[in-house]
Amino acid sequence: GESGLRPQAALAAAARTDPRLSNTGVNQPMNLATMHRTISCDAISATVDAPLENLVHRLNATLGTTAIPGRPLPGMAYEHAAQLVNPNTLEPRALVMSGSHHAKPHVYAIGTEKYDSPAVFEAIRHHYTDRWTPARLDLALDLWHPEAFDLVVPQFIAYATRRDITLGHMGDWTRNKARTLYVGAKASRQLIRVYEYKQHHGHGADCRIELQLRPKSTLKAHVASRTPAELLYSCDAINTALSTLGLDIPEAQPMSPGTRPPADLERKLNWLAAQALPSMLQVLASVGGDPVGLLSAIMDRKAELDRQRDMCRWSTGVDQSTGVDYSTGVDHCIK
């Protein structure tokens, strides 16, 4: 009426400011592309391949802290600890632990807002790029929108339900007070927490999506090489939930149990250097030192071996390399 717009146009105009109104169809995404988002590392527990004194000095210089005697965390078998604190207030910013049973010191910044986890994370990544190993990382995606929690939670519930993933919750869901949704088992290597951050802490973003990672050993180097944003958006549940709502998501390489970490490539290179290199150099010399000729010779020999194997399988009915009997179905090896 007073706006001078037709009802359809008025609804469209309202939808640009109230994302709830754009959800008019079952699969129609909400227009939330302009929602303010911030990303950080909210918690870190990691070993660092560096002398203890060097690590403490660099963290102090970066964080503006000073080191005082601390207490090692129980159950982690460390004997000594240095608490990095604000020199004026003595509030803790991080804990560095060491001990005779561990070759490398361990940095811990989890469990309290006083710990400066984002700064600790960035300092370690900057100073010790490929010399640190994460035991646990919590990556936080903060959404600054009063309806953010109620918009994203149904997406996570739908995702978990389709894949039979464990769901849990805390808080007052009857009166919508300080609610938390858990996606995944608390003991799993990957757990998502979605909670009303401002209601929990009295300040900050309206909603926080937190990805807690406890990477297995074969993925630790891979995780250490990624930024918080890359880790968050490589999580399929987070990517799917936000994309469904119309949020722009950067392309990210999926991180799955099948992902090969750099360490796997290192093992292959070590094997080639130690075992195969002498033979490869002889073949290289025989083809005039031409690397392309070397590769061609290897591929030709591979093709010949495959042909011989197939002929043997066709004539005997048995694959000599695997011992599998094809005598009842020789057709399988005739192309």
Characterization of this structure:
By secondary structure, the chain is an alpha+beta fold. Helices cover 38% and strands 23% of the residues. It contains 10 helices and 10 strands. The chain has helices at residues 7-17, 52-63, 117-127, 148-163, 197-201, 220-224, 228-233, 236-244, 262-286, 291-316, and strands spanning 36-48, 66-69, 80-85, 92-99, 102-109, 132-144, 167-172, 177-183, 190-195, 207-213. Strands 2-3-4-5-1-6-10-9-8-7 form a 10-stranded antiparallel sheet. α2 (52-63) crosses α3 (117-127) and α4 crosses α8 (236-244). The longest helix has 26 residues, at 291-316. The protein is globular, with a radius of gyration of 28 Å. It starts with 6 loop residues before the first helix and ends in a 19-residue tail after the last helix. Residues 1-31, 257-263 and 321-335 have low confidence and may be disordered.
Keywords:
335 residues, ten-stranded antiparallel β-sheet, disordered C terminus, globular
